[in-house]
User: Fold this.
Amino acid sequence: MLLLLLSLLFTKGSYTMDLESARLKAREHNQEQLFRFSAELSQEEKEQLTADIEEINFEEVSDFWRQEQKNTAVEEREPIKMQPVPPEACGSVLRDKDKIKMWERIGTERISQGKVCAVLLAGGQGTRLGVTYPKGMYNIGLLSGKSLYQIQAERLLRLQLVVGERFSCRVVIPWYIMTSEDTKNQSISFFEEHKYFGIDPAQIMFFEQKQVPCLDFDGKILLKEKHRIAKAPGGNGGLYEALESSGALRDMTSRGIQDIHVYCVDNVLVKIADPVFTGFCVDKNADCGNKVVKKLMPSEPVGVFARVNGGFQIVEYSELSFEDAERRDTSGELIYRWGNIAIHYFRLDFLIEVATKCSAKLPYHSAKKKIPFVDTEGKIITPSFNSGIKMEKFVFDVFQFSKSLAVLEIVREDEFAPLKNPPGVAKESPYTSRAAVYDLHYRFILAAGGSVVDKNGAPLPFIPRRRASDTETSSGVQVEICPSITYFGEGLEFLKEKKLENHFYLHKKGEDLLVTQPLHKVIQTAKRTMDDEDTDFTAKREKLENSIS
Assistant:
């Protein structure tokens, strides 16, 4: 891995274009504004500007802008001709309960054979959350104070342990983490600082997706400094090109990987390398698969799964007509009810085919964003408004190339709690994410025969909290179970007939941790855990004490 990182750094510093050649290249594509301040630049800054320009695929930018203008010029788009996904491609953990054990057996067997890996999409900064570091480093405020990265790492370790014990073998699930120029170095340092959360560094590979230029609303490439191009990650659909260029696909091939589980960093409930999903897709002989949840209502703003022009496609909610959104079958169910949650399965041969032959065909989509830029006077503007356009590819746009796609419905409350918004926002915020964890873990405890009680020993009822108006106080259940104890509710038999006081973080098995404890002992338990994990949690301890005082 070290050699890979060094090679990438070395390649990044190799440029052949001079300033005048760069100027000519920009002029050919009507982008002369990039040299507006060239007379003011030092020699080093001119070299940096030249290097930035050399990396730009101007033809790609021009093609995108022409398509963007064409889309804008069309006052009313033709309705998308949609068809439902055929029933034989679909499965459900709710309707097909008799098959879940079979799917899990298939999935765990393939994990034991070293055929399964996980790919984490972690190219985004936590800007919308109000922080300047990668989203994977974010602490949503759980009792343990753990980051998203740590939660997922410990869940991966637990799955390896469970499968290893079941098949009496050593299990390794390689973890490929796609970062961006903005998140790569910080993410690697965070993993190193925390000793990779107990995972063998040899099974983790960081790789970087391509950055693409940001545009203003006239199609002009923006500057973020007088000598630097404003760039951003090119969307999660940049995965395929990045897998190929980084050598990750070659690494997967050399390891004997066949089944790839892809997911986004901001879902705190994600079942990383889920054996049930893997087994389902293998059982369906699928070249790619997609987890979905049933839409809450016809107008829910999520993309839906459908067939379009003979191929599979996620139709964005903004492109879905009112008639199609409301359409129902004979049983009264929405026909287009499968909402996309960005959890995918790919077979390796399909990924190789897409990465080497199809990724260039994927379209860029337009996303209006608040992009810092240099104005015509040379001032750096940090806008509070949408100031430009980011070019983004979508990871699911490859579904059109699938010959045998499978769709698995899962329970939203079990597996999907995305983090998109800062504290104080009603939806998809740190509050809703940690409430989803507490709710799920309380259900684990109840299913194991345990209970959660208040300070007087009275059992607390299970009342899911999903609304912003719900208060997260001592009256609401707050219990957290460390992922190293359970992957998805298994192995908790020792909780039978046990009573856990509210605000409890269960981080290891033991009789001393399974009795009602006063709050000051809960704090001590959390502190011991934080110390045991060799992590600096000083600030997080203070938050914990304040949250339950």
Q: What stands out?
A: Residues 148-167 form the longest helix (20 residues). The longest strand covers residues 338-347. Confidence is low (pLDDT under 50) at residues 2-15, 467-475, 514-549.
